[in-house]
Amino acid sequence: MITLPDVTVLYVLFAFAVSYFVLRRYLFGPLGGILEARATEEAAAAKIHAESLERLAAEVARGEAELARARIQSLKEREALRAEGRAQLDRKLDQARASAAEILEQATREIAAQAESSSKELPGRVRQLANALAEKVLGRKLAA
């Protein structure tokens, strides 16, 4: 007896072909498109990220340059204020020295005047003090 060949292999091949075309059309195609879109978006995001990093680096460099200029300007201003302060201190010290010298000169003149006055009064006062001492020692009053 002659039997017909087994057709299940043909059914399996047919089912495989149909499944492949259906899956390719409705699963692999859209899934590939989604993956391709994701890769495109990833590349665009990477490009935007790189550009933003470049802008950030440029802004940081600009900010640092501006800070350096401000630092230099503040140092110049500080030195100018220090010089002005030193000049003012020197003026005040000169005024104080001049005032001290004037006060010292006036005190020297007053001391010299008092010394001269005392040296003029001293001979007269010596006689009075000698008489007062003699009266105390002797215990009686002297006659002239």
Mean pLDDT figure: 90
Low-confidence stretches: none
Number of helices: 1
Give the helix level as a range of percent.
over 70%
Distance between the termini: 193 Å
Structural Rg:
58 Å
Binned strand content: under 5%
What general form does the structure show?
Answer: rod-shaped
Question: H/E element string?
Answer: H
Query: Quick one: how many beta strands?
Result: 0
Structural class: mainly alpha
Largest sheet: none
Oligomeric status of the shown chains?
single chain
Protein model, in words:
The chain is built from one helix and no strands. With 144 residues, it is an all-alpha fold. The model has no long low-confidence stretch (mean pLDDT 90).
Question: Any chance you could write out the topology, listing elements then pairs?
Answer:
Layout: H1 8-138
Could you provide a short overview of the structure?
The protein is 91% helix and 0% strand. It is built from one helix and no strands.
Question: Can you give keywords for this protein?
Answer:
1 helix; mainly alpha; 0% strand; 91% helix; 144 residues
